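Render this sequence as a predicted structure.
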Amino acid sequence: MTVHSDILILGSGVAGLSTAIKLAKALPEKKIIIATKDNKEESNTKYAQGGIAVVWDKLDSFESHIADTLRAGDYENNEEIVRMVIENAPERIQELISWGADFDLKSENTYDLGKEGGHSAKRILHHKDITGFEVQMTLLHQIESLPNVELLSHHFAIDLITQHHTEGKIIQFGDTDISCFGAYIMNEKTQKIDTYSAQITILATGGAGQTYASTTNPVIATGDGIAMAYRANAKVADMQYVQFHPTSLYEPGKSPAFLISEAVRGFGAYLRNDKGERFMLAVDERAELASRDIVSRAINIELNKSGADNVYLDCTHLDQKAFDHHFPNIVEKCQSLGIDVSKDFIPVVPAMHYLMGGIVIDQQGRTSIKNLFANGEVTRSGLHGANRLASNSLLEALVYGTVISDYITENLAIFKEPIPTIPKWNTEGTTAPKEMILISHNRKSVQYIMTDLVAIVRSNERLERALDHLNYLYEDTEKLYKKVVLSPQIIELRNLNACAHLTVTQSMEMNKNKGAFYSLDLLD
């Protein structure tokens, strides 16, 4: 079956939904399809606890937020993009509030602004400790009111459609005349693979947290958009910059890990080692509120020195009534494990949290492939540099949703470009896999290779070992892919392989430590 739309959006988190809303309202006569591989509520957005960073207080300033973002990113950011996103933030947040988003108030007319690591002012708008879920539900409610948007859940994008499919053209890296005509998408309920053609395709598929065994990302975060774009020879950069959140709840073998929000340290919690010492005081002048790369490395050093399994987050000195009100889900989770945050320290360890790298986009959200746009964690926009500042991610997606919509609205000639004849997905010669164990084994292998060898601290020897292992798994997976009937499991495995390979190879190209990238072989 071939399905045509004017605009095809892959992903239903804040990036995909905000872009769809703005486009649907600006172009009510255009048909927009959103395809998401899980249910419509499931995305990385849903799990964002902390909030959205925005200059809201009169004592704060754009220049301060920009300076904090650049410092956190180790000045690898694109300052023009940083300025664009931060200066557009208040308008986007006001719009979100007008759509019904409910952020916590300190008084009747004053928002309760939080402070997080790397920020020099209170500027975090939040809804208790489930801000992402609040934003997700607000956007979904808007989508439901738009008649020209169709949201397809349990539809898994397999590959982007380019001249490789329509003309049999061999596409090479660096080609400047590649165009995107949509995507092949699997209906997970019927297992049928259909052709979805579109004048414009927008990738909003999120990050690649599941490349690691220890991650705060949900199981859907398998780098699908990055891998699809990479296979289509789009530019992908900065995959070496992987952010580890310093404080995930220590639960051995649990994946995804439960996140103890950055806002907890912003609220005044201390980090302590196994001796009860506040070790961050000797590491950075901002102590617990240093940027995530610095705090994660400090924890890693403490664990290596002591041989302990975890460090601790101390909330015992805080106003417990206010803490319970602000972080109800964190309190409830700790209670379920017998941890009373008013009396007990919370055991924490770093876990993979966010990918600064991804598909290279410009100031209009365009990729290096014609008529292919991207938004959110799937991208490398230049906002985050070598390390994302806390709570800048939801903000980026909201701003770029409007930026992409404005560009498309001002360039309507795109919709007049013809779409070539697209062949159906070829399943000839494939059979159902006899066992799924081969796929699940390879997935776990990728995750443990990355966790053990490509984590917070790296070295040339570790990276070379990781690449050898990943090359074997790639070849093994490709053999499987060519002979079995496609399933979400084999597609995700291919995508994880691609993202892991990019992270390792781009790490090997580094000649200095920057932000979240740290190698023992590049010490000054």
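Summary. The radius of gyration is 22 Å. The mean pLDDT is 92.
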